[in-house]
Design a protein that fits this description.
Layout: E1 13-18, H1 42-51, E2 57-60, H2 64-75, E3 83-85, H3 102-108, H4 113-116, H5 130-147, E4 152-157, H6 159-169, E5 185-187, H7 192-203, H8 206-213, H9 215-233, E6 240-244, H10 250-259, E7 264-269, H11 272-278, E8 286-290, E9 303-309, H12 318-328, E10 329-340, H13 347-356, E11 363-365, H14 379-389, E12 395-406, H15 409-416, H16 421-427, H17 431-445, E13 449-450, E14 453-466
Parallel strand pairs: 1-4, 2-3, 2-4, 5-11, 6-7, 6-9, 7-8, 9-10
Antiparallel strand pairs: 10-14, 12-14, 13-14
Helix pairs in contact: 5-6, 8-11, 12-14, 13-17
């Protein structure tokens, strides 16, 4: 997990690693008991080590299992210097329950169920509440974020500590973060086929309608990103270009202008309403079709360039989609696409959402392989998908821009209810919940108001790869 304590200036990324498994055959509650851990899975340690940033600041809790995990990650190839110790990252202290089996706890402390199933204010006898754990965790997060601003910080810690860090990252009130539950998300458990069906239904239904209703605002917000992507794609006169996820066709029209009368552009999108709007461009050297990138029957080896501006993150089966797109490329062809980086690097989306979250129903949490706005934020995942699809080694360029959200806070609040995750959450919320959520968002936005309106940072990957 990467998180920033404060979203101002440069981003400080936190990488939280839970300690290796603790052998516990008797089923004892160990909390801050200094238990050893099992570090025998060398393949897992090597895999984890590759995912962690180089040159990061490393911290561990004072407990053996966290320190040992950090040590073995270093042996497995993680690159870091000294592992610094912070006792504030220790697991929650369960007081008199530590060392007892859960059966013994139930026998000796008959109301223990009020703790395990209850709110985070519940305290085990002689121990800490979740609120206590969160307070000390946040204290260290904010202190270290200020000390190492703009750096990566890796922390090997514990389940409770990491839940506290997540609750802080999402600005969750204590009542919204019960013991052992983490952020108020509902985990997605859908298959790739189900995701593909859902995406088609959304973009041909409410998603397409909301996009069209918010078109002008969305275009203003992403204009600089789109211009940079088109410049990088560098479509040439006479080329054949495929515009994937073309939406209402603005990028298709620009590509058509660049390839000229001797070139040809095909815009494809899964949404019939958006393609209907795109056809209103009436371009002589461009056509538009409704289709799924994973299954559409493109002409084989027909295109010099495949382009996409924010159109690839929603593929139900991304490997299948990119394989199908690669078949449509000529042997010397190229693909260039734009996608959002991680949520923590995109305050334009995160600041309103985490301010509103404590007041709204749970937001469905996408799995690591599920489609979604930030599903291509993990560079390693994008590299893996393209490699499995047969593309050459991709190059990544970071794009960072200030996104105009509106001329003032009331306008931003009105816009948020028209398109995006908050619009979907508002649809399932009561008027009272929406009022509280908007008030919280308004407070969070005050520090982002300038003479030209409300602006928040946005961060993208500009990815390019050869056909092979």
């Amino acid at each position: 997990m990467a998180t920033a304590a404060k979203i101002t200036g440069s981003i400080t990324r936190w990488w939280w690693v839970r300690h290796a498994p603790v052998p516990n055959p008797e089923g004892r509650c160990y909390g801050q008991t200094d238990k050893d851990c099992d570090v025998s899975n060398e393949a897992l340690f090597k895999h984890q080590a590759k995912l962690l940033p180089k040159g990061a600041v490393w911290y561990s809790s004072n407990l053996l299992r966290a320190r040992k995990t950090a040590e073995h990650l270093g042996r497995a190839g993680a690159e870091f210097g000294e592992v610094l110790i912070d006792p504030d990252f220790a697991e929650q202290h369960f007081g008199l329950w530590q060392g007892l089996t859960y059966t013994e706890i139930a026998e000796k402390h008959g109301e223990n169920h009020l703790f395990w199933l209850g709110p985070p204010e519940k305290r085990p006898p002689g121990g800490e509440t979740f609120g206590d754990l969160r307070e000390r965790t946040v204290r260290s997060i904010e202190r270290l974020t200020d000390k190492y601003r703009g750096r990566d910080i890796v922390a090997t810690a514990h389940g409770g500590t990491i839940r506290a860090a997540l609750a802080h990252a999402f600005n969750m009130q204590l009542h919204a973060a019960p013991h052992g539950a983490g952020p108020r998300w509902e985990q997605s458990m859908k298959s790739q086929a189900e995701h593909a069906v859902d995406q088609a239904a959304f973009w041909n239904g409410p998603g397409g309608k909301m996009w069209l209703a918010s078109y002008e605002r969305i275009q203003r917000g992403i204009a600089h990103f789109g211009s940079a992507a088109l410049a990088a794609a560098a479509a040439k006169p006479g080329e054949k270009v495929l515009d994937v996820g073309c939406g209402t066709g603005s990028t298709t029209a620009e590509l058509a202008r660049e390839v000229g009368s001797d070139g040809r552009v095909l815009g494809v999108d899964i949404s019939e309403p958006l393609i209907g709007a795109a056809r209103q461009h009436h371009l002589d050297n461009a056509a538009f079709e409704v289709g799924d990138a994973a299954t559409h029957k493109f002409e084989t080896a027909a295109f010099d360039l495949i382009f996409s501006r924010f159109g690839v993150m929603f593929f139900g089966d991304p490997v299948a989609a990119f394989k199908n797109l690669r078949r449509a490329l000529r042997p010397l062809g190229r693909i260039v696409f734009l996608c959002w980086r991680t949520p923590m690097e995109n305050p334009w989306g995160l600041v309103p959402l985490r301010a509103a979250a404590p007041h709204l129903p749970p937001l469905e949490r996408p799995g690591p392989e599920d489609p979604g706005q930030y599903s291509f934020g993990d560079r390693a995942r994008v590299e893996r998908i393209l490699k499995e699809a047969g593309f050459g080694t991709p190059t990544f360029r970071t794009l960072d821009e200030q996104i105009p959200m509106g001329k003032n806070i009331p306008e931003v609040l009105d816009n948020l209810g028209k398109f995006g995750p908050l619009a979907r959450l508002f649809a399932d919320s009561t008027p009272e919940q929406i009022t509280k959520a908007k008030a919280a968002i308004g407070e969070a936005l005050k520090s982002h108001v300038g003479p030209d309106g409300v602006h928040l940072a946005g961060a993208c990957w500009l990815v390019s790869a050869a056909q092979h």
